[in-house]
Amino acid sequence: MSRRNEEAAIALHEIADLLEIKGESRFRIVAYRRGADAIEGLSRDVADMNESDLVSVSGVGKGVAARVRELCETGKIGALEKLRAEVPVGLRQMTMLPGLGPKKAMQLFREIGVSSIDELKAAAEQHKIAEAKGFSKKFEEEMLEAIERGVTAPQRVLLARALPLAQEMLAELSNSDAVIKGSYAGSLRRMRETIGDIDLLVASDRPAEVMDAFRSMRGIATSKAEGPTKTSIVTTRGMQVDLRMVEPAVFGAALQYFTGSQAHNVKVRERAVRRGLKLSEYGLHRVKDDKLVASATEEEVYAALDMQWIPPTMREDKGEVEAAVAGELPRLVELSDIRGDLQNHSTYSDGTLSVRDMAMAAAERGYEYFALTDHGPRLTYMKNLGPSEITRQRKEIAKVNAELGGRMLLLHGIELNMDAEGNLDYPDDVLAGFDICVASIHSSFKAPRAEQTRRMIRAIENPRVNVIGHPSGRRLDRREGIDFDVDAVAKAAAKHGVALEVNAHPFRLDLRDEHVRWARQHGVRLVISTDAHSAGELDNMHFGVATAQRGWTEVDEVINTWPRKRLLEFLKKKD
After folding, report:
1. φ, ψ for residue 332 (rounded to 5)?
2. Average of pLDDT values for 414-437?
3. Omega cis (within 30) before 511
4. If DSSP codes are grouped into helix, strand and coil, which group holds residue 375?
5. How do beta strands 230-235 and 240-246 pair?
């Protein structure tokens, strides 16, 4: 996705958020959210599209199209600026509290002037909230209890939202001659699924110029702290961004210091101490005479400690320090290892592009193989692959394969729906006609652990199932995943030759990193799929790769890193 597309989608979501807080029409709110989702799925840059082009995109109405064009032409949206002036940033954080939705938050703001969580806490302690119409002392107690439990910590942002913002800010800063090099750090560089705040690191000999450029960026609501080497700002969407400045000679040491988790950094510093060294963001120094040993690059720092360089995604103190000391770090799967994508959708179900258009988008990315896996008929609330659709789609796929002439193989697949017992949409004789069968959970999320485990194992035991898609069924933006026995499911998958999916969609990232590591211990094969519903979503693959890396996944463990012949052998139907 282009940065301008991401910027437009974020702006549209923010409009929807603010309209919701103001209690505006539900139809308007939904229109902006649908428009944002549609823009996120585009492979084309909105900056190159006129209003007519935008309206032709499914989900984008005239009003949304006008807002997007305004952003592209002026760098801002007037309606959004007006809403920001009307709704304080803190109100959005207040709506995180259980029982305090957008309407109540706005009411408290209008009636007693509460516009942040701190102000809400003070008002509750002084019993001012109970004085407002419709509120009570019990509500005050609930708010104070929620705050005490810590549920009001600043909302963590999805990785897919934070990463483009960090990249855009770095790109804008890099336009300054004062910037020699830069990177994002912290949990973002470790590619955690959600981010608390963004850490940017810049090397420069003229820090004042860089700080001025940073503070003058658009989209900044407030400045929290300012100093010669660090400035913290809050964006108009409530995201904190910290910029740290270092001298070019120590950039590597600073990047190492500000990337690892606290526990990882403690382990590395302890190793330095045992060797008569001290490690900080200013470099690795010898204790006895303070001589600088290494600082320019991360590789130099780790090498000076007789360690392998540790990939950022592994720096969580999960055994990576010990493995690096022993020279036993795994050869992690990388984006360049991926040869194909094995779960995707077309207009035969809930995708936005035709069979041919999705296939050509995949071929443009240099894939050797690509699977279309539209939904089976148990998913009744959307278009799906009924018997007639299976036949028609299969003919289309054959036609596209003929057009491709062997440069990429388009596989005919299906995403099956497990019911509460693990039953699937079609009997085995129908499933035998597909090249790949992905079985996923789309319902019955609240069943007990034992029942969820049984339903998954029953699907795994089906001789036609090749992959379990997004195994927990979680959505980071709306629901927790099911509770299931990862070890039992992984053992069954390994036994029956079924791969578990690492779904790369940034709202899923499922299997999650911890589950990936647990599953790998049983020898299970993994597949990293984008679950793309548009051409633009095919570019989400790197999120799945990062999640797999966080689970220490090696290249050969991922079936879509395999050559075509080996993959097809794996997918052969089991009798």
Report:
1. -65, 150
2. 94
3. yes
4. strand
5. antiparallel
**pLDDT higher than threshold 60 for residue 153:** no
Write the pLDDT tens digit of every residue in 6-59.
Answer: 788 888 988 988 888 888 887 788 889 888 878 876 767 888 899 998 988 877
Each residue's pLDDT tens digit, 88-121: 778 877 877 767 877 788 889 889 999 888 899 9
End-to-end CA distance of the chain: 42
Residues 79 and 94 occupy one common structural domain = no
How high is the pLDDT of residue 152? 41
Residues 270 and 211 in one domain: no
Give the CATH number for residue 394: 3.20.20.140
Do 309 and 416 share a domain, yes or no?
no
Pair (423, 287) in one structural domain: no
CATH code, domain with 284: 3.30.210.10
Q: What does pTM read for this prediction?
A: 0.78
> Is 330 inside any structural domain?
no
What single letter denotes the amino acid at residue 152? T
Query: What would the pLDDT profile of 173-213 be if each residue is shown by its tens digit?
Result: 999 999 999 999 999 999 999 898 999 999 999 999 999 99
The answer to whether residue 221 is domain-embedded is: yes
Tokens 């991926």, residue? 338
438 and 561, same domain (yes or no): yes
Same domain, yes or no: 210 and 117:
no
Query: Are 349 and 475 in the same domain?
Result: yes
Angle, CA 228 vertex, CA 225 and CA 230 arms, to 5°: 45
Average pLDDT estimate for 329-352: 95
| Residue 479 and residue 438 share a domain | yes
Residues in contact with 447: Cβ distance below 8 Å, sequence separation at least 6, in sequence order: 420, 455, 482
262 Cβ neighbours under 8 A, 6+ residues apart = none
Cα 422 to Cα 24, 56, 384, 453, 458, distances in angstroms: 42, 40, 19, 9, 5
Number of domains forming the structure of the chain:
5
The domain in which residue 278 lies consists of: 250-325
